[in-house]
Write a structure and sequence with these properties.
Length: 229
């Protein structure tokens, strides 16, 4: 699953981390890529955010803080039911004055074999997110693997431009999955959150979850990805 959890707050400002975890439990999510995870106490976060989100069901995690302060961090996170056997954080930043952007890149041992799960959250600036996308593909390709593993790339791409050079670029490197709009939750019409994959033998599909309870959890709807062999 991928979801921008908006610091654990709904569009009404109500914080509900337990609700995000319940969503993952209800859909039996094995691996989740989350954006805008907030652990800074001064911003309403808490130190046990990882435990609260992952729980005993998803005990393995890879964090990618984009902002670090004395009382916690803010950024991207992968929680997994299965062991993360290699974890990398890619720095995508190209213009220092903007909010730093990164990507989590985890190689995970699953019942389907090794999966390379990559999550990111690109900038609001169209020019910046284009350069971040180029950096992302370049850094992904630089990772040395003893074997080529299936890739799932997902996250908040922040791309609403149509036609889109950014999407055309990513689609030329990975296979895009079709799913419905995710933003804003009260009237979703923008496909800000997206999923791509690369595999010769796995079947991958994705759907946007749009029920009433889910709309209360964030300003973005989640996308649940199904992977079979």
């Amino acid at each position: 699953m991928t979801m921008n959890i908006h610091g654990g707050r709904s569009n009404r400002g109500l914080r509900n981390i337990a609700g995000v975890k319940k969503l993952m439990d209800d859909f039996d999510v094995n691996i989740a890529v989350l954006q805008e995870v907030e652990t800074r106490i001064s911003r309403g976060g808490c130190n046990d955010e990882l435990t609260a989100l992952g729980g005993k069901e998803r005990p393995y995690h890879l964090i990618a803080p984009s902002i670090i302060e004395h009382d916690g961090w803010y950024g991207n996170l992968i929680v997994s039911q299965y062991p993360i056997i290699r974890g990398i954080v890619h720095n995508l930043e190209t213009i220092p004055q903007y909010e730093p952007r990164n990507a989590v890149d985890a190689l995970i041992e699953t019942p389907l074999g090794k999966l390379r799960i990559i999550g990111t959250h690109l900038s609001l600036s169209i020019f910046e997110r284009r350069s971040e996308a180029r950096n992302l593909i370049r850094l992904m390709n630089l990772v040395e693997e003893t074997e080529r593993n299936p890739i799932i790339l997902m996250g908040d791409i922040n791309e609403w431009q149509i036609p889109s050079l950014l999407l055309r670029f990513l689609n030329s490197h990975l296979n895009p999955l079709s799913c419905r709009a995710t933003f804003p939750t009260w009237l979703p019409f923008l496909k800000l959150d997206r999923v791509w994959y690369c595999s010769d033998y796995l079947k991958v599909s994705a759907k946007t979850v749009r029920n009433g309870e889910v709309k209360k959890l964030s300003d973005h709807l989640p996308i649940v990805v199904t992977i079979t062999n």
